[in-house]
Protein: Kynureninase
Organism: Nocardioides lentus
Amino acid sequence: MDERAEALDRDDPLAAYRSRFVGADTDLVYLDGNSLGRPLAATGDRMRTFVEHEWGGRLIRGWDESWMELPLVVGDELGLTCLGAAPGQVAVADSTTVLLYKLLRAAVAARPGRDEVVVDTDNFPTDRYVAEGVAAERGLRLRWVETDPTAGLTTEQVAGVLSDRTAVVLASHVAYRSAWVADVPAVTRLAHDAGALVLWDLSHSVGSVPAELDAWGVDYAVGCTYKYLNGGPGSPAFGYVAARHLADLAQPVTGWMGHADPFAMGPGHTPDPGVRRLLSGTPPILAMQPLRDMLPLIGAAGIEAVRAKSVGLTSYAIELADELLAPHGVVVSSPRDAERRGGHVTLGHPRMREVVAALWRRDVVPDYRDPDGLRIGLSPLSTSYGEVRRGIEEVAALLAG
């Protein structure tokens, strides 16, 4: 290993956490934590215990004993650990797409008489597709902001499209392609000054970039849990609703689990007065179990320390790209300013699609995104500096071959 990588790993205050993740001690170089995080070793034991004792031992009694409240218990812990959200505002359920639909529909309903939704052209596809569907259902107009795929949505761009017709601004905290960190408090203030609401997608930031949803005045937010939160493939999403909006939240999928008294089973739907009203059907209790290990781990490390390690890893990746990859024509397609950069780095080159395929065959695992982008997703608690070095060296070798 390079001496600099060795020194960075030796001085890393979070280095000891790496051994807690399955596979971290193997030769595989995993640079895709922004798509799917490694599992914690403790989660295997938790899942086994859950099956044998909670599910197998308590059976239906589990609902009365803890499962009914688990979406809110885990939501509160997530809010405290990563989101800057006071209790009673976060629920874990569904997928990001479903919760995005629920909250976008609720947001436009909360602004009657306004008929525009602001969304940027480089937002994650699901966000754009859901916005298109809601616009078609509700007879709304999408106000598209043309964003640079190597950067992201700016406050100036948002200011230029807001009007008294704007109902909602839908945007991502961290851009999925470039890792651009949006100025959430500034964009939120602009939207509020125009009488609009904001809905932020935190999928590419939660667990690596701290959020302060309450302090920033955010109205609604969603995000997934399988990236930097290591919840596993298809793990449930979360939705945040600011306390001031809960009493009027009119989400469109009114199921029994969001009812004020689910077991009354009477005529008509009376929504729960709290964030539970965001639920619809039976929550995925089994799929929440990995989060019960990962959230305390982030809490122990501290989200600010996690962010510092994230900045260190991405800065080192850019340093290596400049040294080893730029001579082959690779460009850094992510912000160089660490304040504007999330937890991944995108490297551009016309051959990156074939390079990524070849890397996977060598047990080096980043991912690819059009156009011509190799993304290096650096999950702070499970990724070492030496791993980053080995990955970049393999990219250089393939480009040189």
